Amino acid sequence: VAFNEYDRQVRLNSLTQFFPKESPYSHAEILMYFAYLIDTVCC
């Protein structure tokens, strides 16, 4: 559980780096980013 929480924090941190804080981003963009991450890691 602790590792999953840490992994989630890391991905949230990279999310804030990937998207500029000043411009709001939609949930679709976040989902696409996570899909990209999963695709790179798993496949």
Feature tags:
43 residues; mainly alpha; 2 helices; globular
Can you describe this structure?
The N and C termini lie far apart (24 Å). The mean pLDDT is 73. It contains 2 helices and no strands. With 43 residues, the chain is mostly helical.
**Amino-to-carboxy terminus distance:** 24 Å
Helix-strand sequence: HH
Q: Figure out the total of helices.
A: 2
Shape: globular
What percent of residues are in strands? under 5%
The total domain count is 1
The pLDDT mean sits at: 73
Fold topology:
Blueprint: H1 2-18, H2 27-42
In short:
The protein is an all-alpha fold.
